[in-house]
Amino acid sequence: MLYELVNFSDQLSPLNVFKYITFRTGGAIFTALLFVMLFGPGIIDVLRIKQGRGQPIRADGPQSHLAKVGTPTMGGLMILAGVLVSVLLWANLSNMYVWTVLFVTLGYGAIGFYDDYLKLKKRTSSGFSGKVRLSLEAGIAALATYVIMKLGVPGFSDALTVPFFKEVLIDLGPFFVVFGMLVIVGAGNAVNLTDGLDGLAIVPVMIVASTFGLIAYLSGRVDFAKYLQIHYVAGAGELAIICGALIGAGLGFLWFNAPPAMIFMGDTGSLALGGALGAIAVAIKHEIVLAIVGGLFVLETMSVIIQVLSYKLTGKRVFRMAPLHHHYEQKGWKESTVVVRFWIISVILALIGLATLKLR
Question: How many CB atoms lie within 10 A of CB 154?
Fold first, then answer.
């Protein structure tokens, strides 16, 4: 919206600043942060009244979590609202990459919202059918990936790029839709599995968003892309605005989600945030880098997969409890210790991911 002020820069030269992605990304961060900070308390009060007993606590989870009974969920609503307002205000709304990522973000947010609603209604830690949920996620992701393919250059938009190798492109053809779908669905559910402790998921999300905001900006600039020998994706720079909005809304949410949490983001937030990161990675052709930068989410997901397979095949559990953060809680680590150490791991992985930009 504000981007349109560039059209009047001939009459008023200071308006020329709105054409710069860096300026508008900063504006997106501040706007989303301010929105969540201002409206967050009101949203929390409404959710607390509507939900009564709050989010159901996992019966077989760590006993320390029983103290969280009564904490409202669906805090993802304040994150999504802040992101949406910020993006509509600061992004170039003629850019289809922006609308495609928003489509995934809001679509996954709607799926997560319905899942949270059913959990509250049935007073259980499980929502609706996993098959139905995954089918809806897959449909949204496949459509978004198809649009992204059509926005790109033929022969490149349906190929997989490989970190550390500037010339390597793996042509997937029509199967790129399936690959992109798996990336987006996987990212959404990986963040969802990680969201189990106060502040655990939102900070790594912000770290990944910061990393991909930078990569999106660089990928969308011919000069920087050429210098770093990464693939240029025309129009991808605008996705830095969405990353900025995710950071700002995440910071605002963390204010209320810091231990002891006043609200949980729920599937409404975790599924939407993961989907957004997955869609951005597909759009800027850094899907493999997402697995590196978001390695914490990968570890959490793999711990669940390993636990389930091990129990089905051998009747034994590898971890004391899955996902991974619960394993360390069961070993005696305090919740705050687990959270902070997992944050540190996220920072390290982000630095490794950024190194792929230059090591080519």
Answer: 9
Got the DSSP string for 200-260? TTHHHHHHHHHHHHHHHHHHT-HHHHHHHT----TTGGGHHHHHHHHHHHHHHHHHHHSSS
Cβ proximity of 236 and 97 under 8 Å: yes
Angle of helix 266-283 versus helix 96-122 axis, rounded to 10:
160
CA gap 319, 323 in Å, rounded: 9
Structure tokens at 95: 């850019």
Nearest residue to 48 via CA among 30, 29, 71, 81: 71
What tens digit of pLDDT does each residue of 213-263 get? 999 999 999 999 988 888 899 999 999 999 999 999 999 999 999 888 899
Q: Is the pLDDT of residue 209 over 90?
A: yes
- Residue 258 — φ and ψ, nearest 5°? -65, 145
Amino acid 92: pLDDT = 95
**Where on the phi/psi map is residue 357: left (φ > 0), alpha (ψ -120 to 50), or beta?**
alpha
With a CB cutoff of 8 Å and minimum separation 6, the contacts of 16 are: 6, 9
Structure tokens, 238: 């605008």
Report yes or no: 124 and 175 within 8 Å, Cβ to Cβ. no
Distance CA 198, CA 215 (A): 28
What DSSP letter does each residue of 10-51 carry, written as one string? TTSGGGGGGG-HHHHHHHHHHHHHHHHHHHHHHHHHHHHHHH
Nearest to 241 by CA among 26, 85, 79: 26
Beta bridge pairs of residue 160: 170
- Angle (CA) 107-291-244 rounded to 5° is 55
